[in-house]
Design goal:
five-stranded mixed sheet; 5 helices; 7% strand; rod-shaped
Length: 243
């Protein structure tokens, strides 16, 4: 294949740009905030589980307290009704029955009030545990939100750079002759890179010195002849060594 020296130099520019884009993609993938978020996932799950467990316990004690409070109200209503009946009753047997029931209701009320106090203590402890679990969850979730915000900002910055570089790549690839670009893309897909510099006798594709015979064959080729690295198969473009 033949391509002008300018076309071959454009190929190196394209390779440099592709290398830069690949570096930016790796950088985006390996952002430290991403690893921090992954490391926080287990802690966040545990905090959520503790929060839900504390909430269930608090809800259970609250429901039990409400049930007992309802029973206390029913006893109070029954006491009021019996006391009203007793106040107007003229039958000794009825009065005796009402008095006995009031005594039973008083005993029942005492049991309920004692149970209420026990539940209130449990409810208070559960409320404290729930508040602590809430604080832990909010703390972990707050750190997660900070990491996510930092990650979004870092990704946005890289994406802006990528957009510029990809736009430049479109322009470069449009300047390349189609067969040369197709060859480059084929090699890049297979090797991970498509073109490299030949500096003196060093192939930057393999980072090795070429054998004298290999170098002689390359030097004998015309300036518009597309040459390849003997070690990797990538396109080699001869460049002048820096002074």
């Amino acid at each position: 294949m033949k391509a002008s020296p300018r076309q071959q130099r454009l190929l190196l520019d394209l390779q440099d740009l592709d290398t830069l884009i690949a570096q930016q993609l790796r950088k985006r993938k390996m952002l430290p905030q991403r690893a921090a978020l992954a490391g926080l996932a287990g802690e966040l799950t545990a905090a959520k589980q503790d929060f839900m467990a504390a909430q269930r316990e608090l809800d259970a004690h609250t429901a039990e307290f409400d049930r007992i409070a309802s029973d206390v109200d029913l006893v109070a209503q029954r006491v009021k009704r019996d006391e009203e009946k007793l106040a107007v009753s003229t039958a000794p047997k009825e009065a005796q029955a009402l008095t006995a029931e009031l005594e039973q209701l008083a005993a029942r009320n005492g049991v309920l009030e004692e149970k209420q106090l026990e539940i209130m203590e449990l409810q208070e402890a559960a409320q404290t545990a729930f508040a602590a679990a809430t604080a832990v969850l909010e703390g972990v979730d707050g750190r997660r939100a900070e990491f996510q915000c930092e990650l979004d900002e870092a990704e946005a910055a890289i994406n802006r750079e990528l957009a510029i570089n990809k736009k430049e790549r479109e322009g470069l690839s449009a300047e390349l002759q189609r067969d040369l670009y197709t060859l480059y893309e084929s090699l890049r897909g297979r090797l991970g890179f498509g073109a490299a510099r030949l500096r003196g006798n060093i192939s930057e594709a393999s980072n090795m010195a070429l054998a004298p015979a290999e170098l002689a064959d390359i030097r004998a080729a015309g300036p518009d002849e597309v040459i390849f690295c003997p070690g990797t198969g990538a396109i080699l473009v001869q460049v002048e060594e820096a002074a």
